[in-house]
Amino acid sequence: MEKRFALITGASGGIGREIALKLAEENYSLYLHYNSNEEAIHDLIEQLRPFQVELIPIQADLSTGDGYKKLVGNIFALHAIVLNSGNSYYGLISDMNEQIVNEMVQLHVTTPFQLTKELLPKLMYQEKAAIVAVTSIWGQTGASCEVLYSMVKGGQNAFIKALSKEVSLNGLRVNAVAPGAISTSMLESFNAEDLEIIKGDIPMGRMGSAKEVAEAVSYLLSDKASYITGQILGVNGGWYT
């Protein structure tokens, strides 16, 4: 069986971890990107060892202008990219300083563009190659007090749609998964009362899990999605349709 390699950015986070576990189960060897959470990557590697796939951790700060270069320099064979790095910033637009804006745009928009541009030649040589970005429901509909986050996630969705058209004749599929409210550390800033209010707004009446997001990513990378490209798949319990 051909060894297949996938790059997962933000592999140390809750969603990234579940994506790594799912793809290792499917026999992908993995480039596991992280920034500062080295302990989480070591723990993840221990979890992944039973799958007997090749595991390559790579540290890089993708919120800086040249962070992607360090990542690209450690990538060799490649069949899939999962663009999963990101963080949110909750607050009024008037409270956001220039540094926060620059870092968020770099992390969510500029770096994914630069990283993908540099790695595309490796994917073009492979059969059944694919890219999946983990974006957000707020990139589809927008959220008060998350204007900046909504803007950059909307940019990711537009990037995916445009790129899919540009590379489709090369056999490269490009899609995104847009999670809604997912039980990860990104919701830790909300108290129990706030979380209950959010659940009440979701038609399915519950938060999603990182594993459910990982299943959607896995599907879009698989042959089962062989005629799907340029799509933003909502994983949101019906919160936005």
Describe this protein with a few key phrases.
241 residues, 8 helices, Rossmann fold, alpha/beta, seven-stranded parallel sheet, 15% strand
- How many beta-strand elements? 7
Structural class: alpha/beta
CATH superfamily, by name, is NAD(P)-binding Rossmann-like Domain
Share of helix among residues? Answer: 40-55%
Explain this structure to me?
It is globular and about 50 Å long. It has helices at residues 14-25, 38-48, 67-72, 98-124, 138-141, 147-167, 192-201, 210-221; strands at 4-8, 28-34, 55-59, 80-83, 130-134, 173-179, 232-235. The N and C termini lie far apart (39 Å). A 7-stranded parallel sheet has the order 3-2-1-4-5-6-7, sandwiched between helices. It has a single domain, classed as Rossmann fold, CATH 3.40.50.720. The chain has 241 residues and is an alpha/beta fold. The chain has 8 helices and 7 strands, in the order E-H-E-H-E-H-E-H-E-H-H-E-H-H-E. Helix 1 (14-25) packs across helix 8. The mean pLDDT is 95.
Brief write-up:
This protein is of the alpha/beta class and 241 residues long. The chain has eight helices and seven strands.
